[in-house]
Amino acid sequence: MGKVAAFILLLTSSVFAQISVSGAVKTSGGAITTSNTIAGTAISSCQNLAVAGTYYLTQDISSAGSCIGLRVSGITLNLNGHTITYGTSSAGWTYSVTAEPVVRSASTDGNGNGIDTLSRGGRGSQSRAISITKISNTNGGPADYVSGLDYANTQQSVNCGWSATTVTWCVGHGGTKPVLAATYYVDYTYQEPICGICSVATFDTVTAGDLSMLRFSNTLNTTSICCGTITETAGAPPYSDPIRIGQQNNTIFSGLNIIANMTLNFASVSGAGFYGNGVNNFIYYNNTINNTGTLIYNRSAEEAFGVFQSGATGNAGPSTAAYNTINGGPQGGIRIDQNYSKMHHNTISLTATFTNSPALYPYSNNSEVYSNTVNCHTGSNHCRGIISQGDGSHGDSNVIHDNVVHARDNNQNYEYGTGFNPGTPGCELFGAYGIQFDTTTNATAYSNTVTGEADVCDGRAMRITGTVAGSNNVTHDNSFSGVRQGSSVKRAVGLSVDCAANYTSTSDTFIGDTYPILMDIDGAKNILLISPTIQKGTNPDNANFKTVYIEDKGFCSGFSAAGDLTIRDATFGAGTSVTDYFVLPTNSGGIPFNFFAQWTYTPTYTSGGLPLSGATVTITNALSAVVYTGTTDVNGQIPAQALNQFRGFNTTTTQSQENQTPHSIAVTKGGCTTLNYSVSMTAPLTESRAVSCP
User: Fold this and answer.
1) More confident residue, 509 or 145
2) Among 39, 549, 570, 662, which one is most buried in terms of CB atoms within 10 A?
C-alpha cells in the first residue's frame, strides 16, 4: 500500500481535521479535487474488498447486480474519477411465488377496510420488495388485476395500513375491495435490492427459492469512499441504493467514515443515495446526488432521501453533511439521526411526490442546521424545508440558523390526488412549510430567510405543530414570508400555529399575502410574539386578508383548554393593524380563545432631578384590576411592564373586544406627594416622571 493523500475537511470556522482519503484534497475554495498521485491497490472490476487498505479504480466498471462489497473495516476506495454502473440486468435476486393464498381476516383498519396477511420486505428484516402482478379469489368474483409497483404505492403504502406483514384493501384507492370471507391468491415476485457499493447482503450465496440471507456481523469503521460516479441502471429493483452501509443486522460503523466528492445517479423505487442503518460518525462532503425516481413504498418510513442515516446503536457519534447538492427525489433530502450532528452549506432542490418531504431533517438532539439553501419553488421542484421533529428521544434542542429556504407544494403529491392515484396528484395537507417545529422541545431558529409559496397549494413559512406545555421552542431575528403567486386563492402565511404550546418569537418578521399570523384555535397555548414586524405582502389576497386569523380546522385532538396568543410591541406595516383580527365563535366549533395586544411600559421616577428609590408603584387597568405593584430600585425604575391594550376573545356567536387601557398609575412614598396619572397603551412607551418630595 502506498501513502494516502490527505483530505482536509473544514468542520467549523476555526477547526480543521485531517482525514485519510486516498487522492482527495480540499482546496481553499471548498471543493475537493483528485491528486495526480494515486496510491494503493488498483482494481478494474466489480468485487468484494475483504482486506483493509487503500484501493483505486483504473477504469469504469459495471455489474449486472451489485458492484463493490465492503467486507472489513479500514477500507479507502477512490474511484479516481471513474464510474460504477450497477444493475445492468435490472434483475437483482428474484424469487417468483405463484398463487400464494391470502386469507381475509376479520379485523379492519378502523375505516371499514379488511386486513389480509401477506409478507413483504422493504427496509425491514428481509429487505425485499414485492411486485404484485395478479390477485384472484375463490368465490367466483372478478379478479383484481393491478400493475406491479403502482399497486404497492396506491393501495398498500398510501393511507392503507401497509406494514411488513399486512395488506389493507382500501376502497377508492384505485382497486376493488375483495368480497369478504374469501381466500385470495396472489402472484408476486421477491426482488433483492442491489447497490453500487454495499457493506452488507451483497455477494452472499443463496440457494434458489431460499429467502434466507447470510449477514455481515462484524463492526465496521474508518471507511472512505471518494472521487467518482455511481450510476444505477434504469429498472433496478426497489431499494437499490448507490451506497448502502450498515443495513441488516444493525451492523455498526464507527470511527470516522467519509463519503466525499461523489456523484450518485439513481431512480429506483424507495432508493436512497446513501442509506445507512446502525451507522454513526459519517461525513458526507461535496457530493452531488441526483434522484429521478417518483415512487416510494412507505412514506411513513421516510424513504428515498438523498442521505438517510438512521438507527445507530451503541456509542453513536455525530455526523456531518456539508457542501452537498441534492437534486430531485420523491420524499426527502438529508436525514441524520445522530445527536450533535451538523448539516451545513448544502443546496437542495427536491421534486417530492409524497408527504413528509423535508429537505433537511435532523431527527436527533442537539444538532445544528445552518447556511443551507433549499430551492423548492422553481420548475417541478417541490418540498417542505427544514423540520425539527421530536418523539421523546429524538428531535430536541436542535438549532436552525442562517438558512435560505423557499418551499412550495406543486400539486404533485400522490397521496392527496383524486382516488389516491399517482396519475392524478394533488396538494398535501396544509401545503408547504419552510421551517417546522413538530413535537419538538427547546428548538431554536434564528437569522433564517424563509418563504412559503402559495400557488396551486398553500404555503406557510413557519409552522409550529404538536408541541406541548414546557416545550419552550423559540425563534428570533428571522424573516418568514407567505408569498402568493398570481391570483391564487390558496393561503400564503407567515406564521402558522396548530396544536402547539409554549412558543416564543422575538424580533421576527412575519409577512403574509393572506395572513401574516394564522392560528388553529385548538391547543394554541402560551404563544408569545415579542417585537415582531408584521407586514402585508406585495401580492395580497385583499378579499380574505387578515393580519391575525384564528380558526378551528378540527385537526387537533385532545385539546380543550382555552388558548391564547399575545403580540407585544409589534411594528405593523401598511395595511396591517393590531385590531385587524378574526377569532372563530365558539358555537362554530371553536373553544374559548384570547388574543392579547400588549405594549411595554418603562417608567423612571425622579425627585429633584435624582432617581427616586423605594417608591411604591401601583398600576391599575381600565377594568379596575391591579396588574402590578412594586417598588422602585436605586435607579428610580420598576421592571418594564407588558400592559394590555385589549383582550380579543370569542363568544358563542361572534368575537368581542375587552379594552384594558388607559391604565391608572399611582406612585407613593413617605414624605412625598402621591403622583397619580394615566397612560393609554397603544404603543411602547418609555418615559420619566417627577415626584414632589419636599
Assistant:
1) 509
2) 570
